[in-house]
Design a protein that fits this description.
By secondary structure, the protein is α+β, with helices and mostly antiparallel strands. The chain has 2 helices and 11 strands; from the N terminus they run αβββββββββββα. Strand 7 and strand 8 form a beta hairpin.
């Protein structure tokens, strides 16, 4: 069963003008999948997409745990790989650095109240912080579908998301299948399609030819 948690989390995202990040999501196992307009950029069953990198205490595991996002893979199809951070690892956090994003989501496994997510913006500033306690029941029960959720963070107007910091002060914070919608122009302008670029370049060329002709006329 899936349930939209937009109402609960949107209120968290609108706590202040400085934290204009909206949070939406659905719970359930297996992973409900990326939000509309997003594509998978990180799966621990394969390499990350270009421009995405980790730092800190990231660990990975391959098991049949319900915290894993994807169907079983690997030798014999017996395990699925996922990432996690833990208070038993120093540091107990991992930071995912990304290109400029309009939104990013990931599958959050067996949510506990001691799991924390910081959404990072331009210059590494923290735009929003939430804990697993905002997603009840938050009891870490790996056999309960409601404790596994696809959580989506959407940047506010004039903002970009540049990364996530995932923290745990307890046993573990499991996650997998990060998906994102990229913003190539952080200034908010539309990014031209290839055909548009061709027209623009052609236009610039005509302007240059016209300018050279005017200079020749003046010199004559």
């Amino acid at each position: 069963m899936k349930r939209c948690i937009m109402g609960l989390l949107a209120a968290v995202g609108m706590a202040s003008a400085a934290q204009a990040v909206t949070v939406t999501g659905t719970f359930g196992a297996p992973d409900p999948g990326p939000a509309a307009g997003q594509t998978i950029v990180i799966s621990f069953d394969g390499p990350s997409a270009a421009g995405y990198s980790w730092s800190g205490g990231l660990a990975t595991s391959c098991s049949s745990s319900s915290a894993a996002a994807m169907p079983a893979v690997g030798p014999g199809g017996t395990a699925s790989c996922f990432g996690y951070v833990s208070s038993a690892i120093n540091p107990n956090s991992a930071t995912l650095s990304t290109p400029n994003l309009s939104s990013i989501s990931f599958y959050w496994g067996s949510i506990d109240a001691y799991n924390f997510v910081d959404v990072l913006g331009a210059g590494g500033a923290t735009l929003l912080s939430i804990s697993g306690s905002t997603l009840p029941p938050s009891n870490g029960n790996q056999g309960l579908p409601q404790t596994n959720r696809r959580v989506n963070f959407i940047a506010g107007a004039g903002e970009v998301i540049t990364g996530l910091r995932l923290r745990s002060t307890g046993v573990a914070f499991e996650f997998d299948n990060f998906a994102a919608a990229e913003v190539l122009d952080p200034g908010g302008g539309a990014v031209p399609e290839p055909a548009t670029w061709a027209m623009l370049l052609s236009g610039f060329g005509l302007v240059g030819v016209s300018a050279r002709r005017r200079r020749r006329t003046v010199a004559a």
